[in-house]
């Protein structure tokens, strides 16, 4: 009789531990999926440092070209005024 009680308790304990591990595994899988989705969403909404630097460099290059053009226009205007 004592052995039957011991087997029942051990079976219940193993069953509970197995159920608990299964639930934790399912929760871990769910969280992994959520983290992956979050990474995808973040990548859609935000830019990387490299992209920002590339865009800023493009703007600065355009401003430099505009500055050169304005300098040429001003020099040409100044040259016409001196003539």
Protein described:
- By secondary structure, the protein is mainly alpha-helical.
- It has 2 domains: 1-46; 47-83.
- The protein is built from 2 helices and no strands.
- The longest helix is centred in the first third of the chain and has 44 residues, at 2-45.
- The chain starts with a helix and ends with a helix.
From the alpha-carbon coordinates, what is the Rg to the nearest angstrom?
A: 36 Å
**Inertia-based shape:** rod-shaped
Distance between the termini: 122 Å
Roughly what fraction of the amino acids lie in strands?
Answer: under 5%
Brief digest:
The chain is mainly alpha-helical and 83 residues long. It has helices at 2-45, 49-82.
Record the SSE blueprint.
Blueprint: H1 2-45, H2 49-82
Provide key terms for this protein.
2 domains, mainly alpha, 2 helices
